[in-house]
Predict the structure of Transcriptional regulator.
Amino acid sequence: MLRVLAFVFLCFAVPAMAQDAQEPPGALSSIFLVAQKGSRDPFFRDAVVLVTHRIGPTPIGVIINRPTGITVEKAIPDSGVASLKSELVYFGGPVSAEQVIVVFRAKNPPPLSVEVMEGVYMTMDRDAIRSLLARKLSPKDIRFFAGYAGWGFGQLEAEVARGGWVLVRADAATLFERKGDGLWQDLHRKGSAKQARAGAAETLAAR
């Protein structure tokens, strides 16, 4: 558990406390939060959340495995991109559910986009989203969300300490290529196994 909390601390606490300092190269910027089995929160039951500290002073994220059934064409009527019109918008979280958030891959991101992983960006800005739509990106390089999840100072660390989440390092392949059923199960299994090994190592080290 100590290693898990240290992982959260590296992802969120250090950048939050040192906003004026340059972030060290290779610093962790995003993780997948994987809900524990039996979560009672209907918003996060069986959820996988891409979480970053780079948007503001506290972490925010989007749920990546909950399709809404609403297409991009309906959510953004002036989208005008045939290849993306039928793409589904995913429920990103309970905060500002009317807000469209886009996560995408690009070599030259538009202004007001924030890098959340190497080469992967997030934006909530309407002009930036229009700019992205005009580029006619592949559906494999862009995802759309309605709303987001947010935490207050220390809230996420407390939830992790209580065992509410399994943590898995975020990667672009999972984000853009694994949208269907089975994502939560696979990441929960992967993250739980790693945390179990870390816990066993800590127990042995304490002897």
